[in-house]
Amino acid sequence: VIRKALEPDTSTPFPVRRAFDGLRAEILPNDTIKSAALKAQCSDIDKHPELKAKMETLKEVITHHPQKEKLAEIALQFAREAGLTRLKGETDYVLSNVLDGLIGDGSWRAGPAYESYLNKPGVDRVITTVDGLHMQR
């Protein structure tokens, strides 16, 4: 959702659109191999200042996105349903920066307010299927 929302508008001059699309593809890759490589680089972000600068640029774009409020709602729901915590924020640089940029603060790391639905009573009746859907027993 976030990657699609950050797609450059066709009215943007081509050189700018091309440059931003390259940045978006690098920071939010839609390829699992590239994503794994990015996470590996981000695990020691201080050794990659150019990557850190690109992430800051992306956060700045997110901050001024015209649909920021809706994207923030989606990000909060994602954080809540996925059960993201402070530990995830400390270990996944890309995810934590995107969520911080969308939500505007680190409140998603607070724990109980964003507890995974998998930790709620009755979860033993929920079956996660191969396609990611959930069925009730």
From TrEMBL:
InterPro entries: SipA_actin-bd_C_sf, SipA_C. SUPFAM superfamilies: Invasion protein A (SipA) , C-terminal actin binding domain (SSF101312). Residues 1-107 form the Cell invasion protein SipA C-terminal actin binding domain. It holds the Pfam family SipA_2nd. Signal peptide: none annotated. It comes from the Bacteria. This is Pathogenicity island 1 effector protein SipA. The lineage of its organism: Bacteria, Pseudomonadati, Pseudomonadota, Gammaproteobacteria, Enterobacterales.
